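request received
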Amino acid sequence: MASAAARSGLRSLAARAKAPAPARRPMSSSAHDDAYETAKWEKITIVAAVSCTLLAAWNLSKGHPHYDEPPAYPYLHIRNKEFPWGPNGLFETKHDH
Amino acid sequence: MGVKGGLHTTGAKWFMIESQRHSYHLVDPSPWPISGSLGALATTVGGVMYMHSFQGGATLLSLGLIFLLYTMFVWWRDVLRESTLEGHHTKAVQLGPRYGSILFIVSEVMFLFAFFWASSHSSLAPTVEIGGIWPPKGIGVLDPWEIPLLNTPILPSSGAAVTWAHHAILAGKEKRAVYALVATVSLALVSTGFQGMEYYQAPSTISDSIYGSTFFLATGFHGFHVIIGTLFLIVCGIRQYLGHLTKKHHVGFEAAAWYWHFVDVVRLFPFVSIYWWGGI
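response:
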């Protein structure tokens, strides 16, 4: 009992000794810095999203190529058994587009 | 009842609940582990039955999936109640989901690594059966500088938006954080839309040689992870809107952000090795 009380006293002393250390998060120091970082990353996001939009506009305006049907090589269009949903569907030959 | 040492002598402020003399969360009995197990059992048995055209396979598979999704919903709902409303997630308890999330992402890295291994294994020394060349003879491949190039910067942009959301949460800018998460999720959805468009226009399918198998397995699983990450971020956005996330306590958001950075960085690997190097 006495040793438990002594341990308890030591623990609370130890807790008091290291108590004042402020809770700081690694990689972010204060609220001010977080406000600054928020504004910075907002700008980065906007620049990135606008760049992606421009890239999309340029990319999609090019149109897309059309492919010829390849010869029936044995490793193409492999069918070992029927699909549960029948012969047509998800993995069937693509339509022309 | 005297004070008998232990952490509680340092002050009651350590505890949300006065009677609890430790910082760990002893969970209540829950029906969700067994219901999730039964859902998983029905899903696997139903899936095998469906794929082998047994009668009732599709029904069992659907019921299993519904059961599994229901369990996920109510289990996570309970965890949110325990952490957000009941205050059980102390600093000590938060370590659990943190380590869990990190280990989960590490296992995901290994999972996707296997698909890139398969793709490299098949493409670095193409066999005679596919013409000794990569891409195999007769396979039409996507131009990497079209939709694949377009889709590659969209995910890192979304990663920038989630970083914006993180700083907004740390700065206590609650509305800004919601806007940032809306931006993150919007970019994610655009990316998934382009991936769908790319698959629709792709000249080959998953049944076209080892090229189709490795291409659609790797890019498809990456796309599936994008969808999972998007759902995770949507949940975080809703929770941020409802005021669940605070400056000091937002483990769920951090896990979603880590997962999202993993997904957006992984996108660079299929672009370089599968679309670009493997497609020309």
